[in-house]
């Protein structure tokens, strides 16, 4: 269950201003933003991102305010809510449209960024009885790059309290593991180890990281199976959703088939 408040959390409505979200997305000044594949109707007007409010908006607002308060700069600032839209600061940079092969420096930077985000939530009312607050989708398509380096995460709508391995496993998968790349499995395993090193996993966590990757891949199948029923979901055809489900299953089968290689790299 998601807590609804945090220490010194500001109400999402206190700084509300501007036009309704529908008017914003139809405005000639609005620039649609396509980072990620989950939310519909996200647009930028000037330096402000307008994101349709949803069930997780209050928690997202509290989390972004907490991250700002604790000095974490790798996330948008929460600016308020206006007529059905959450207002966020725009982070300049590049968001990759597709997964690709990443350098060691990029993978390590992503893992270090995730660790800094997690550390900023540790011990907070939002994390509650859990270890940290998880982003739950810290893949490359939700990262802002500057000069080729990931410097921030976006799209915190799925954020919720959890164990840090949930996020580390998803990051290791989406930044380092791929069934259809030409990168050799041992090279992929080296980058999974790099994630563990750059994040700073304990030996016991490293020992179960591959199991956590497999669980996240299985969870992704469930997520896309249920996706059409989600309110405010981005448009996706049945064929597109079917391919995402099939991709997640291929990734799971690939990881499972080569788990001894990944486990050996993490030992």
TrEMBL record:
It comes from the Bacteria. It holds the Pfam family APH. Residues 1-29 are annotated as: Disordered. Coiled coil: none annotated. Residues 1-21 have a biased composition (Low complexity). GO terms for molecular function: transferase activity. InterPro entries: Aminoglycoside_PTrfase, Kinase-like_dom_sf. Keywords: Transferase. Gene3D superfamilies: 3.90.1200.10. Residues 131-191 form the Aminoglycoside phosphotransferase domain. This is Aminoglycoside phosphotransferase family protein.
